[in-house]
Write a structure and sequence with these properties.
The radius of gyration is 15 Å and the shape is globular. The chain has helices at residues 30-40, 68-81, 99-107, 139-146, 158-162, 167-181; strands at residues 3-8, 24-25, 28-29, 45-49, 58-59, 86-91, 112-115, 122-125, 149-151. The protein has a 7-stranded mixed sheet, sandwiched between helices. The chain is of the alpha/beta class.
Amino acid sequence: MSLGAMILSGGASRRMGADKGELDWLGVRAIDRVADVARQVGAARVVTVGPRDYGLAHVVEDPPLSGPVGGVIVGAAFLRAAGCTRALALAVDAPTLMAKDLAPLLQSPAPGAAFEGLHFPLVFEMASLPPDAEAGWPMARFAEQAGVLRLSCDAQAYLRVRGANTPQERDILLEALAAREGA
């Protein structure tokens, strides 16, 4: 089974006040940190989804800024065309995510899994993609229709998995990252 990863980077970053993908996380752009984690867990292909091209494989949701389900749909189409049968959907705002945080999702049986109370990260089989899914759907509806399991998230990993939507959340995660990496 070939795993592909999509990094959703199509939000407006209003609460952060800056492009989340370009933000510096101890000398590495957020988008690159998330892509590295995807590769660490075995993603054969990694694609960014959103209006901005970060220099990686890239697709734009149609219509642009159509929300996370629109991003997942176009990301899944790209990965399926690349021969992937399983998808890992990641948010660009979780650059402190670790490979071990994703293990429960990746070890989950078909059709896939996500953590309770969080839309991303999400793992799903391409075959479980709801055929009538539309860009305007809420992520909860998409996950329910795809049949993904909801797993509890380790309390120690929760902040890393949830990511940073505001400068204050970023400061907390940056401090933890610096401690972890000895910076």
